[in-house]
Amino acid sequence: MKTDIILSGVGGQGILSIAAVIGEAAVKDGLYMKQSEVHGMSQRGGDVQSNLRLSDSPVASDLIPLGHADIVISLEPMESLRYLPYLKKDGWIVTNSQPFVNIPNYPDVERVLAEIGKLPNKVVLDVDSIAKNLGSARVANIVMLGAATPFIGIAYDKIADGIRSFFARKSEEIIDLNLKALKAGYDVAVKI
Asked: Measuring CA to CA, how many Å separate 127 from each of 91, 116, 143?
């Protein structure tokens, strides 16, 4: 088993929390893991990106080479296109359909989504609306994680355990909300 994941988005969207939950699940599953992240401009709404490499054998490098990512998980559609050169030909893009417009010359959203639409393996969903319907916009990242779960290579129940572990210091209500968010995203992906 080997899965190379690129997580991308904008500062404040919870990219690093997704990486931490997957990391918790990987460790509980007995997998090796390497992670690299870039989040220097995250406080200003800049690009946040993480390379996450999972394997049942030791991983030498934390960086994913061009054309080797199995999945790009993005909370921002334009950011998913930024990392497209890293995606394998048969890899998956799992992205939010709603943009985070943080620059004055943000490209036309319809054009961005049309480019994503050309890809053979994609899940595009409005995680913001799904999260709001669950009662908290703050769980949009976990909705995205749920949508990506079928492609990560770790069983759903292990990802759920990762959420329980990551949010262990929070209330049961917060844990339950995040588990509902995971399930909501997962349900969308399995329908696609």
From this structure: 21, 16, 6
Its sign, for the CA torsion 97, 83, 108, 119, is negative
Q: Interhelix angle for 172-191 vs 127-134, to 10°?
A: 140
The predicted-structure confidence for 65-98, as pLDDT tens digits, reads as follows 999 999 999 999 999 999 999 999 999 999 999 9
DSSP 40: T
- Distance from C-alpha of 69 to C-alpha of 76, rounded to nearest angstrom: 18
* Contact status, residue 117 vs residue 95, Cβ threshold 8 Å: no
SS3 161: helix
**Residue stretches of the chain with pLDDT short of 50:** 42
Residue pair 137/126 in contact (Cβ under 8 Å)? The answer is no
